Amino acid sequence: MIGWSISRILEANGYDVEKVNLVNDRGIHICKTMVAWQRWGQGTVPDVSGTKGDKLVGELYVKFETENNEQVNRLIEKGMTGDEALKNTSLIMEANEMLRKWEAGEPSTRQLWAKMNAWVYKGFELTYERMGVSFDKMYYESDTYKEGKKLVQEGLEKGVCYRKEDNSVWVGLTNEGLDEKLLLRGDGTSVYITQDLGTAQLRYDEYHPDRLLYVVGNEQNYHFEVLKLILKKLGRAWSDNIIHINYGMVELPHGRMKSREGTVVDADELMEEMHRAAEKMTTDLGKLEGFREQEAMELYEMVGIGALKYFILKVDPKKNMLFNPEESIDFNGNTGPFIQYTYARVQSLLRKAKQKDFDADLNKAPRKEASFKLLDKEKGILRLLHEFPGIVREAGEHYSPALMANYAYELAREYNQFYQEVPILREEDENRVYFRLGLSDFAGRIIKTSMSLLGISVPDKM
RNA sequence: GGCCCCGUAGUUCAACGGAUAGAAUGGAGGUUUCCUAAACCUUAGAUACAGGUUCGAUUCCUGUCGGGGCUACCA
Length: 462
What we know:
The chain is mainly alpha-helical and about 450 residues long. The chain contains 16 helices and ten strands. The two termini are about 25 Å apart.
């Protein structure tokens, strides 16, 4: 959602943005789920068990980690040190074996891998679609890791990398104040950074972009620092154009989210909950008059997802954020629905104006010579409208949806105050009525545009 | 141990080195025969601590305390 919004904002600033999704579809973590499926999941497939494919595989991952932890503990009891135990459980060895087979292209391993990945992608697709997020291109690291290995080879030839006795390959970064970093395991298989090096090279080759943006959590700050350094050492000047847009950890009231432990808030469940909360709110407030069932469903979705996105985007993403699924997402105050509501109010006002025979096309409204003093509230709105282009620019410079979100909120709040205090259609002076209608229309458009830069839709009625 | 990020009302967040530190939520009180009360108005409530730089510090520097992350032949 953050990446999507940033892409919208950059487009609004005139950039060509290619949205790519880097899918890490290979590696030890994938092998762990495959081992888990073979051991405990035989026969379960997404369609039959009724769970989405990505969720099913996620559960297998958790299963692997819990079982593996038990094995680790047993080994420690038998007198092994923690480090040894981590490497010597039968599960880990099995996963490692699986990874070797995968890299060797062993057919049955590849087959299982392809099958399980297809489940995951199907699940992801549904989730992205509901979030309103799409990509121009997908990079699969199962394709790009080979490019990474080539880069490592190049590094060895250039003397940037070195091989240790156990055949593993490393790059030394101590001169830059960092440690040495493993690039290839002793058995020749690649690790996360290896495939990321390859992906970066492929991205560059394909687009030759001015900037390569990565929207990735801040726990990977070190990873990207290393990535840039290695590319630089390999003589890739464009390494300087890699920008890691990091965002903070999401913490739950009882601790951090961890996919290994299954303590994550599932995006699908969350969206569903938001939808239901929006439905309840709408019903409780008795706002359903004149809605067909289909329209009502669309409204719940728009408001629910809007609340969720706004909640995430309104804060500076660099900070860690606390997320309490029960309480965090409100529909009142500084929220998405508040802004959506303001927009709906404006639209309602414009509909009423039309009914009262004010010209719907405000550009064609009768223009008389008129001069009148503006009220403070009117000036306030004008001032904010005037700031809009600058905010878009600033949000682009800082890659900050939060600036956009806060602006939209401020404008909505200012408008609501105006709406509450100042008569519009009840005003007697027709010139003033037209001015206020025009001001409302303009404010509505800017609110809609601002929200669209966050990837949030606004309803005509709510 | 080393490196990085963070610490602002009870809570969740704002504030390119600049005016009286803004909101929201929660608390207290109020507004609807009238354009949508998912709104509006009033009210109490905060810069972790100690130094330094500056005409001026929530912001920059140093230290202390507190929270988080990274430092894996995990991703």
